[in-house]
């Protein structure tokens, strides 16, 4: 219905107090300015200027149009500045495994906010399997996930491995020190969801050479896992960083025999280099720095 040129002409009339002064300031003919504004009023079905003595003034509708148009012009100027001066801005669709949301993620985002204040993040927390599919489908731009489930053909950078441990609420269960697989298997075990690598790793440790399988419960929520262990539902396989981040839970690590040690979780940060090379590199740099803190 109107363009930026229309807005600039209206602003000029307002600033200089009339059509003639606006014509002198812009180098346009007064008749051209009058004709343009009249056509704009006809197209929109509104009155922009009212006669005021020998000059003109904005109508109430015209004032509202100018107020809204100022915001459009400011937005236009911001976009042009970002595009022409290399400012990194816009929305980054970030997928994160929950293990990282309580540790690496806050440090990484704080660094990115300081470097690129115009960036905005939409954060999705899901399993590595689901996020890998979303990355392939271009539903996510950058993903922090387990290495073994990263899609092929993407750029990935390793992050510091995450140590896993056996944890218990000592007020509910007492185990020998060090505890063996049979000691652990005698209690309910809370772990990651059954479709995930950490869950399979727990099953491999707990079923090696045993006739009776252990009872392993799966949860997609780390907060739920920690709460279940804290309330005495069972013992849990939980990342060390998570327990350290929540000292109020008072969970205690179980000293176990070497046979019951859990493998570390190998995480990577990845992106599609064809679609998101620039932002992928920058988020990766911040993630690696956060992992070194």
UniProtKB/TrEMBL annotation:
Pfam families membership: HTH_1, LysR_substrate
Gene source species: Salipiger bermudensis (strain DSM 26914 / JCM 13377 / KCTC 12554 / HTCC2601) (Pelagibaca bermudensis)
Similarity field: Belongs to the LysR transcriptional regulatory family.
Molecular function as annotated in GO: DNA binding; DNA-binding transcription factor activity
PANTHER family membership: TRANSCRIPTIONAL REGULATOR, TRANSCRIPTIONAL REGULATORY PROTEIN
CDD domains in UniProt: PBP2_LTTR_substrate (cd05466)
InterPro entries: LTTR, LysR_HTH_N, LysR_subst-bd, WH-like_DNA-bd_sf, WH_DNA-bd_sf
Keyword terms, alphabetized: DNA-binding, Transcription, Transcription regulation
Domain HTH lysR-type: 2-59
Name of the protein: Transcriptional regulatory protein
């Amino acid at each position: 219905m109107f363009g930026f040129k229309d807005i600039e002409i209206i602003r000029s009339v307002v600033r200089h107090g009339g059509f003639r002064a606006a014509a002198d300031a812009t180098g346009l003919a007064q008749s051209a300015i009058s004709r343009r504004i009249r056509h704009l009023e006809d197209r929109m079905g509104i009155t922009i200027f009212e006669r005021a003595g020998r000059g003109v003034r904005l109508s109430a509708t015209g004032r509202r149009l100018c107020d809204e148009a100022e915001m459009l012009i400011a937005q236009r100027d911001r976009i042009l500045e970002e595009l022409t001066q290399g400012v990194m801005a816009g929305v980054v669709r970030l997928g994160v495994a929950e293990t990282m949301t309580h540790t690496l993620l806050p440090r990484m985002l704080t660094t990115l906010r300081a470097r690129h204040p115009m960036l905005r993040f939409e954060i999705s927390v899901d399993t590595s399997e689901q996020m890998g599919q979303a990355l392939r489908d271009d539903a996510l731009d950058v993903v922090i996930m387990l290495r073994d489930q990263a899609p092929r053909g993407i750029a990935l950078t390793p992050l510091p491995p995450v140590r896993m441990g056996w944890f218990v609420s000592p007020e509910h269960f007492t185990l020998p020190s060090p505890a063996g697989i049979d000691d652990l298997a005698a209690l309910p075990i809370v772990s990651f969801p059954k479709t995930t690598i950490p869950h399979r790793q727990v099953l491999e440790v707990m079923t090696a050479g045993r006739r009776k399988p252990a009872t392993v419960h799966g949860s997609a929520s780390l907060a739920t896992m920690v709460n279940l262990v804290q309330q005495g539902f069972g013992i849990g396989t939980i990342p060390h960083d998570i327990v350290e981040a929540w000292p109020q839970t008072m969970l205690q690590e179980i000293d176990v025999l070497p046979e019951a040690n859990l493998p570390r979780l190998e995480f990577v940060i990845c992106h599609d280099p064809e679609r998101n090379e620039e932002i992928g590199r920058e988020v990766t740099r911040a993630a690696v720095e956060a992992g070194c803190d």
